[in-house]
Amino acid sequence: MKIINAHIHLIEIDKISDKEKYLEILHTIPSFKNLKETMEIISLNNILKQMEEAQISQSVLFACYAPIIYASNEFVANICKQYPGKFIGFASLDPKDKNATNVLEEAITKLNLKGLKLHPPLQNFYPNDKMMWPIYEEANKLNIPIVFHVGSTPFGSLVKLSQANPLLIDEVAVNFPKLKIILTHLGTLWHNETFMIVEKNPNVYLDISAYPNEIRTLLTIEIIKRLGENKLIFGTDFPMPYEGKLHKMKDYVECVNNLNLPEKIKEKIFYKNFENLLSI
């Protein structure tokens, strides 16, 4: 079965300002207890190796313009060019940049990126802030999806959790009903609120890149029927650690394969829903 991993990261570590300060803070957070080992697996070669081991044919690589995590649109576009058919690139931008809409247009029309990834807590903005409206309008015009990070954000004092509240996305979805929106991580640990937004709004989808134990618990046939089997998208959030372990894409593939779900629904989760969303 074809598999698309619709949620991975690769960072330009040398371009992160105040890197040592951020690493010191992350060392105090339980989710990053194996931070040193996690940093060591962040490489393009390791991504390709993990994709092969998990039999993942394509991955969606996110750019990110944030102080803690940085990967430029050009960096992502170059990787997509270097490995044609292996990666799909999603752009980033600085929401407070007055030229943000131009950055987005260039990323899509010139760099051939296929969507926009926004991380409200890491980028320090509220997704329902009206300053974001021109960016959403531009994404609408370009007919691209926007991925919003929602739910658990284990970065301690570096972020404000209120900015990851999925209920903030409802206002965006209502004001931009044709804008394709993807929420992340099954919304954990705000999954009930996230499920409400996905159930309510026809234009809102959900990636399942939560911890494997959360996928096993939350992704029941009853919930899938309620949200819509066409709305769930496979992703792993590489290279984030989980359950005290280093990231392995294969664990996520096996987790979904072991769910008590019909094969046609697994097909939709693994690749069909994402392909339909991007009109691939």
Major β-sheet strand ordering: 1-2-5-6-7-8-9-10
Number of helices: 13
Uncertain stretches: none
Q: What is the residue-averaged pLDDT? A: 93
For the record, give the distance between the C-alpha atoms at the N and C termini, rounded to a whole number.
17 Å
Q: H/E series, N to C?
A: EHHHEEEHEHEHHEHEHEHHEHH
Structural Rg: 17 Å
The general outline is: globular
The biggest beta sheet is recorded as:
8 strands, parallel
Question: What would you call the structural class?
Answer: alpha/beta
Instruction: Please give the share of residues in helix.
Output: 40-55%
| Proportion of residues in β-strands | 5-15%
Number of strands: 10
Q: Your description of this structure?
A:
It is a single chain. With 280 residues, the protein is α/β, with parallel strands linked by helices. The chain is 42% helix and 13% strand. The chain has 13 helices and ten strands. It has helices at 19-26, 35-40, 44-54, 73-82, 100-109, 120-123, 133-142, 167-175, 191-200, 212-218, 221-227, 249-257, 263-278; strands at 4-9, 58-62, 64-65, 70-71, 87-91, 115-118, 146-148, 181-183, 204-207, 232-233. The strands form two sheets. It has an eight-stranded parallel beta sheet. It has a two-stranded antiparallel ribbon with strand order 3-4. Strand 8 (181-183), helix 9 (191-200) and strand 9 form a beta-alpha-beta unit. Helix 3 (44-54) packs parallel to helix 12 (249-257), helix 5 (100-109) packs parallel to helix 7 (133-142) and helix 10 (212-218) runs parallel beside helix 12 (249-257). The chain is globular. The model has no long low-confidence stretch (mean pLDDT 93).
